[in-house]
Amino acid sequence: MKRAEFESWARDEVDAVESALEAWVPVDAPAGLGLAMRYGVLDGGKRVRPLLVLAAAQTVGGLHEAALRAACAVELIHAYSLVHDDMPCMDNDVLRRGKPTVHVQFGEAQAMLAGDAMQALAFEILTPDEGVPPALQARLCSLLARAAGHAGMAGGQAIDLASIGVPLDEHRLRDMHHRKTGALLQASVLMGAACGSPSATEWAALAAYGDALGLAFQVVDDILDVTQASETLGKTAGKDYDNNKPTYVTVLGLDAARRHAADLRDKARAALASSGLADAAWLSLLADKVVERDN
Q1: What are the pLDDT digits (tens) for 74-85?
Q2: Which of 90, 92, 248, 258 counts the highest number of beta carbons within 10 A?
Q3: What pLDDT band is residue 1 in, cutting at 50, 70 and 90?
Q4: How far is CA 222 from CA 166, 179, 238, in A?
């Protein structure tokens, strides 16, 4: 029963995020830029990051207006990173979310600008003239910027590009993915938590949950890259292997990678159990969703 309620809640929240993004991502940006932006972020993706924001905010009784804006902002940062990652100068991919990548559809220059504009729009959405207290705006901007920048996602991507054909041990692989993937997922949880007033114990537990879940997401991504078809993934399967990139499967092996993902889910659940939060059920079920997904 709880899982059915969760799925209903998740559908409603994703619909709310989609409606907000539809309203906030412009159609009329100059020279077709808005069309490229909307193509890159609307009507696709699992919306795991927005759901983490909204679940965490609900768990701590956070301000809904702020949480919805944070959910959209983090999805815009994620979408911009995918637009840039897919470009020929980086991962050079032609398929994303089951359709041609933005640079294939609109050209490389427009794709670069669309990613730039989505990044800026994320912070514009976090700083409305009313509805979100200025101190909370600053806190949300700080959490998102740190997760997306040199110490987080961008830094992890730099390590990833520098590691093609280079053997990495598990420690260095974990550091790369903690930055590249994990930082933004953990920030999603903490941005939701920041919309309320969690205690220091609750904040630390949610940070530990986000850290474990963020790494689990990447481990599962690495597993799916070698076990699923492109049609299921919505992106090119086997890309990491073909590009000679280190992954959890190449470093640990497939079976050990699966065990590691399950262990990380257990670690995330244990963090929630230690938090003292009255109802973290949606966060717990989101951990299941991340580990049990097939795309």
Answers
A1: 999 999 999 999
A2: 248
A3: low
A4: 17, 15, 9
Supply 108's token pair.
């490389």
The closest of 116, 183, 115 to 151, measured between CA atoms, is 183
3-state helix, strand, coil split of the chain in percent (to 5) is: 75, 0, 25
At residue 243, what is the residue type?
N
Q: How many CB atoms lie within 10 A of CB 27?
A: 9
Q: Whole-angstrom Cα distance, residue 273 to residue 105?
A: 46
**8 A C-beta contact, residue 193 and residue 206:** yes
End-to-end CA distance of the chain: 24
Could you tell me the two tokens for 55? 């679940």
Task: Report helix, strand or coil for 95.
Answer: strand
Q: 165: part of which helix (H) or strand (E)?
A: none
Q: Beta partners for 99?
A: 96
Question: In this structure, what DSSP letter does residue 179 have?
Answer: I
* CA dihedral over 260, 266, 270, 271, signed as positive or negative: positive
Q: CA–CA separation, 220 vs 95, rounded Å?
A: 19
pTM of this structure: 0.96
